[in-house]
């Protein structure tokens, strides 16, 4: 019976290590004295190290940091989770790493025994954001085929100003009159322009964005207001 229990524990231990190794985030655990207990594949890839480089070693021998900058040091002083922390460090392999991580205290018999950290490096975060944005844009471009990416429903905001502007945008979209959007750079004028176009009766027609800064001053009036047939010949 004892042998079976031991085998069960061994199997469970191997299973847990396998689960930790397939996690895409870096998982790292260290005892309160600084001995590295666990370092999964994602963390080793992030650090540019191997199992033999880290597991069983002291963290101060693997990472070039002042003691007070280690997660375990902060949690030893105050055994509470550290969330959304940013840190830059250099590993024993000479690789500089920028990481965003969460750290958690681990207790045994009521005493702090270890610190578990889960993190992701900056390049991985950038890749994830790019993937999400590309996925979103691909879905939008597959759904809308008139040259736009956004509708008014994509503009999210709870402030009185944004809700009032959205209400006005939906109202003017029902009219055939020209709409002028005013605002500083980066305030989302083209988002609203696309949204108004898609909320209007012209949503099946192409949306054409024109870079006004590239239009010669002499042509601005005719391009914005229209021309009469043979107008240029008469002049």
From TrEMBL:
Q: Which superkingdom heads the taxonomic lineage of this protein's source?
A: Bacteria
The record's Pfam families line, in alphabetical order, gives: Sigma54_activat
- Give yes or no: UniProt keyword ATP-binding: yes
Kindly state which keywords UniProt assigns to this record, in alphabetical order.
Answer: ATP-binding, Nucleotide-binding
Task: Cite the Sigma-54 factor interaction domain residue spans from the record.
Answer: 155-235
Q: Where is the PAS domain?
A: 12-60
Q: Which SUPFAM superfamilies would you find in this protein's record?
A: P-loop containing nucleoside triphosphate hydrolases, PYP-like sensor domain (PAS domain)
Tell whether ATP-binding is among the UniProt keywords. yes
Q: What is this protein called?
A: Arginine utilization regulatory protein RocR
Gene this chain is encoded by: rocR_4
């Amino acid at each position: 019976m004892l042998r079976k229990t031991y085998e069960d524990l061994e199997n469970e231990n191997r299973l847990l290590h396998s689960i930790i190794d397939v996690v895409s985030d870096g998982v790292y655990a260290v005892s309160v004295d600084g001995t590295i207990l666990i370092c999964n594949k994602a963390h080793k890839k992030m650090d540019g190290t191997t199992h033999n480089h880290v597991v069983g070693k002291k963290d101060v021998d693997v990472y070039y940091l002042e003691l007070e900058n280690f997660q375990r040091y902060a949690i030893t002083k105050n055994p509470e989770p550290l969330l959304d922390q940013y840190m830059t460090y250099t590993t024993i392999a000479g690789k500089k790493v920028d990481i965003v991580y969460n750290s958690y205290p681990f207790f045994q018999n009521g005493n702090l025994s270890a610190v578990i950290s889960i993190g992701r490096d900056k390049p991985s975060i950038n890749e994830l954001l790019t993937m999400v944005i590309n996925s979103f844009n691909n879905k939008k471009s597959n759904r809308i085929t008139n040259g736009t990416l956004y509708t008014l429903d994509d503009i999210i905001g709870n402030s009185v100003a944004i809700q009032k502007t959205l209400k006005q945008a939906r109202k003017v979209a029902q009219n055939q009159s020209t709409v002028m959007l005013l605002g500083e750079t980066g305030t989302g004028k083209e988002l609203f322009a696309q949204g108004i176009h898609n909320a209007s009766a012209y949503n099946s027609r192409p949306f054409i964005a024109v870079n006004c800064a590239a239009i010669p001053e002499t042509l601005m009036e005719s391009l914005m207001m229209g021309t009469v047939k043979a107008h240029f010949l008469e002049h």
